[in-house]
Amino acid sequence: MTSSDAPAPATLPEIAPALARTASHYDAVPYESYPFPLTHPARLAAIGRLFDLTPPPIRTARILEIGCAAGGNIIPLAAQLPDATCLGIDLSGVQVEQGQRRAAGMDLRNITLRRQSVTEIGSRDGPFDYIICHGVYSWVPATVREAILRVCAECLSDNGMAVVSYNVMPGWHVKLVVRDSLIAHAAHIQDPSQKTAETRRFINLVKDSVSKQSPYGNALRTELEDLAEQRDDYVMHEFLEEENTPCTFTAFVQAAARVGLSYLGDTLLHSMIAESYGEEIASALQLLSANRLLAHEQYLDILTGRTFRRSILIRTTTMGPVQRALNPARLMDLHIAGQFTEAPAPEVSGARTFRHRAGRMLTTASPNVHVALERLAARYPGTVTPAELIRTAGLEEPGSRSAIVIDALGEMMNAGMLDFYIDPLRVGSASAPRPTAIALARADIAQGAASTASLRHEQVSLDIGGQLLVPLLDGTRDREALCTGLLQAIADRGMQLKRDGEPITRHDEQRAAALQLIEALLKSLESRALLQADSA
Predict the structure, then answer these.
(1) Residue 480's CB: how many other CB atoms inside 10 A?
(2) Of 74, 92, 419, 510, which one is least surrounded by beta carbons within 10 A?
C-alpha cells in the first residue's frame, strides 16, 4: 500500500470528548472569521524567495487551512486564485455551514469546506503546497498539536510551506494569570453568553480595583484593560476555553523537528532583525545568541516579552538552499508595496524622511531614492517591482547609483516598511470609465454582509454608501448609470441625500450630490484595494 492509498487516520478515542466540547463551544459562540494577510501564499512564497528558496507557484497551488472557521481566510484565497485548489477543515459544523453558504453564493468551484478534525487528515489528502494553521495550535490537546505538525510534515509538497501560529512563553505568563482568574471566577456558569457577560463584569471590576503600587498590579491592570476592549468571541475562546497551552519557541521548533520539519522564519520578517528593537536589545542578543538562529529567536522572546508567533515551517529535507543572510538583491524577484507620508526631516541638506503607516521611518538625502519612494507610495495599494523603481529614478544602468535604491529598499525591508509578494498585485483605478468592484466584495454585499476581504487580503468594512454602490460596480455602468442606480438604491432604502443636515429635493441637485458621493466612494474603494484592475 502506497502512502497515497493509505487510509486517513482516525480520531483517537481519548481525545474525542475534548474535540466534541471544542466543537460545541464554537458552534455556540462562533469565532469571527476574517482574512489573515500574513498567511497569504503570495507573502509566504515571497519570504521563501528572500531565503533563496523556490516555493510552488501560488496561482495553481493546493492550499489547506486547518481550523478554517467560517472560511474568512480561505474563501478570499479561493476567489483570488481561481486555478488553485483549496481545502478548509474545522470542528464547528455551524461555522463550516456558514462558509459553505458564502462560497456557494459566489459559485466557487475550487474550494471544499469540511467538518473534520486534523487528526483525520493523512498523506492521501495531500500534497499541499501551502498549509495554514492560524489560531489553533495552542488551543487544542497535545495529541492534536502533534497531529497538526504531522500533517504539515506528511502533506507538504517538496518545496511547500506551512505557517503555524501559537501563543508564546515567557511573554504569555501574565496572560495566564488573567486566564486562570477568569476561569476560576466563571467556572460555575455553563451558558456561554452568561459566562462571557459575567467575565466582562469581573474584568471591569478588577481592572479598576487592583493596586497601582506594585509590579503585579500594574501588569494585571494592563492586561485587563486590553481585554476589556476585545470582542466577546475572543474573550471566550482565548481565555475561557479548557485548552490554551502557550509554549516556548524552542519547544515548538523541537516538536517540529521530531516530525521532519524545520523553522524557516516568521511571517513578520522584520521581527527577526535584532536592530528593529534598538541598540541595547541588539547588543544583548549578540552576546547571548552568538549568531545562532534558534537561540537568537528564543532570546528575542525573553527580551521583548513577545506573546504570539506566526512561524513558517518547511520540510527539513528542503533546507539545503536556504540562505539566512537577507540580500537586498533578492527583492528584485519580488513585487513590493509601501504606504508612506513625508515627515519633518532632520537638518541635513537635501534629506527627506518617509514615515510608514506603522510609524517606522527612513531618512535619505538621495534624490534617486526620493523619486523611487514617491513612485512606490503612488502605486499603493498595488505593487511595483524594484526594477521599475530603478527605471523610474533614471538608473537603468547597473552600478553604484542603482545600488543606492536597492540598499534603501533593503533597509526598509529590514525595518518592516515594505509588503512583498511573489506575484504582482494590481488594483483598479477609481477613474476608470466603468469601474469594477472585485467579485468577492459584490458577492459578500449581495449576501447582506457589511464587510469583505480586499485584494491585499485584509478585512474591509463598508459604510452604507459603500454597501449601496459596490453591487452596482460590475463593469457595465458609467458614471451616469451609477448615479441612477445609486439614487434608486437610496430611495429603495427609504433614505435621502442631505446637505448641511437638510434633505436635497431637486432632481438635478440630487444627481450632482450623488455623483460627488460616487467619486469619493470610488477613491476609498481604490485605496482599500477593492477595485478590480482591467484585465487587458
Answers:
(1) 10
(2) 510
Which residue type occupies 347? E
- Cell numbers linked to 83: 486555478
**What was the pLDDT predicted at 347?**
72
Q: What are phi and psi of 223, to 5 degrees?
A: -65, -40
For β-strands 308-315 and 335-337, DSSP reports them as: unpaired
> Which residues contact residue 414 at a Cβ distance below 8 angstroms, ignoring those fewer than 6 apart?
270, 273, 275, 276, 326
Find where cell 505538525 sits: 149
SS3 assignment, position 238: helix
Task: Select from 171, 151, 185, 358 the least CA-distant residue to 261.
Answer: 151
How large is the average pLDDT for residues 335-363?
A: 87
**What would the grid cell of residue 131 be?**
498549509
CB 519 within 8 A of CB 430: yes
The three cell numbers of residue 403 are: 545600488
Side-chain half-sphere of 534: how many Cα atoms within 13 Å?
A: 9
DSSP label of 421: E
Render pLDDT for 293-334 as a digit per residue (tens, 0 to 9).
999 999 999 999 999 999 999 999 998 888 888 888 889 989
CA 110 vs CA 65, 155, 307, 391: distances in Å: 14, 19, 35, 39
Identify the residue whose cell numbers are 456557494.
Answer: 104
d(CA 238, CA 365): 47
Contact 369, 404 (CB under 8 A): yes
Per DSSP bridges, beta strands 62-66 and 128-133 are parallel
